[in-house]
Amino acid sequence: MAEHSVERDIEHRIRERASRLWEQDDDPKKHADEYWDTARRQIEAEDAPAAPAVEQSAKRQIESENPQEVPGVDDATGKPRAKRAT
Length: 86
Description:
- By secondary structure, the protein is mainly α.
- 55% of the residues lie in helices and 0% in strands.
């Protein structure tokens, strides 16, 4: 029963949005189906779950297998490595 109510709510929201789109259109000569489809896509996009935010530190860990590894730094001392003479 609750699922039927949710479907009616979504249909009601789409109907209201389609009506608003039609009213706001400068040249409302499109078929009702076009406004309905646009409204349905907008409502579905609004109801879609948002992608979780990735914290900057987590992003860096993904980029490197070893987040402690820094290029050009001696692992034992933490000091910059000397450049080799050529």
